[in-house]
Amino acid sequence: MDRKFFYLTTTLPYVNADPHIGFALELVQADIIVRYRKLCGDEVFFNTGTDEHGLKIYRKAQEEGKDTQAYTDEYAKRFQGLKKTLNLYPDIHFIRTTDPHHKAAAQELWRRCLAKGDIYKKTYKGLYCVGDEAFIKETELVDGKCPSHPTMEPMEIEEENYFFKLSAYQDKLLAYLNQEGVIVPEWRRLEAIKFVEQGLEDFSVSRVKEKMPWGVAVPGDDMQVMYVWFDALTNYISTLGWPQDAEGNFKKFWEGGDTLQLAGKDQVRFQSIMWQAMLMSAGLLATKKVLYHGFITSGGQKMSKSLGNVIDPMALVDEYNKIGANGPEVLRWFLARHTAWFGDSDVTVDMYKTAYNADLANGLGNLVSRVMKMASTHLKVPVTQKEDLPHDSYHKGFREFNLHWCANWVWEYMKDADGRIQREKPFSLIKTDSAQALKTIEFLASRLLTIAWLLRPFMPATAVEIEKCVLENRMPSESLFPRKE
Prior knowledge:
The protein is of the alpha/beta class. It has helices spanning about 20-40, 55-65, 70-80, 80-85, 100-115, 170-175, 185-195, 230-235, 235-240, 250-255, 270-280, 315-320, 325-335, 350-380, 390-400, 405-425, 425-430, 435-455, 460-470; strands at about 5-10, 45-50, 95, 120-130, 135, 155-165, 185, 205, 205-210, 215-220, 220-225, 260-265, 290-295, 295-300, 300, 345.
């Protein structure tokens, strides 16, 4: 494959609560894609971070009696801890929207949109959902509440704000969205097109500072701060060093590379419509592709603290670390194989345990132990060559961003090795036909090397350990995945 420049970014979660498994899903999916592109020889730039401005965060800090910056510093550290918790790509970039460079970039984007004539001031009255940090139409309400935040009462706000002329970009957005592949899955692209075709309204891009003091200052107006979405979306280019681009990353990755954004299915309006119009206004290239994933539910219900069904990814990792498994690798594999890429997925702790025992303790861990016991006992020279296998299906799955399918493909490949052990029984055959038995054992060891290569995006630490065992012709120092009782 030709070497390419590849840029991937997740959304930035608000720091008004601890990291949850839904964001872990997005991070792991993103990390798997990045590691795959790195495996193919591409130069990658992987971005994530924290969204730290807005009314939600300001109120949360007040509730806890903390200085707002100190509050965001505390929570940002918890999200930065996900790098270790999830065994993320070592060179991942972590941006905070309170970083001085980011705030300067957001102000520069504002100036460019203003110079284009796309920002103007007017008085507006409407309903505001603090949960979404966005205005909502009465026609969008369900039982008088925002459908995404049914426990929160919408606020009626009337004030003078700056607005962005989204309505001026209807034709340009339709031309952008009518390109196949700019949104995955396809039905989300059609959803975005339908939204634009129904007519676009200009949206507020500022708040009165007196009412909401926690935000990026509007250039030239000390009485207003930027609307949190205008500020936060800018991180996708500020992380690359825009606008100065001193290290050339913006030119290399945004202008000259494949750009990919990951987001939840409720983000289409923000990521593929508002953000793309802002880029167009500023004279910048649009995002080449946005992927929208589904949500994680638990026991058939949306996760919430009141229901007591919230799953903490850090707690899961700690629990499996304690039994001697590699907790981050367990979580990564589960999220890859046992959640749907584009649809919603129901997850419970019991399902997690069942999948772990079946896939890793009784599956991969057992396979590696059986093969390497035979290899270390009977082979005089370590196997060093992978099985010569066409990986077209594997690569096709990644090109289509179907990580669930790819993980299943690798799983079936592992099961086939188990089946060969059962059919040929080299552990018994070694007594009567050593030549044939050794041939089978060598094949199985080479299959393990291939499995290790295929697992690198999904379970990088496990892949390295398996490879070492084969090349050093030894058993794992401990059971890779002890059974969970």
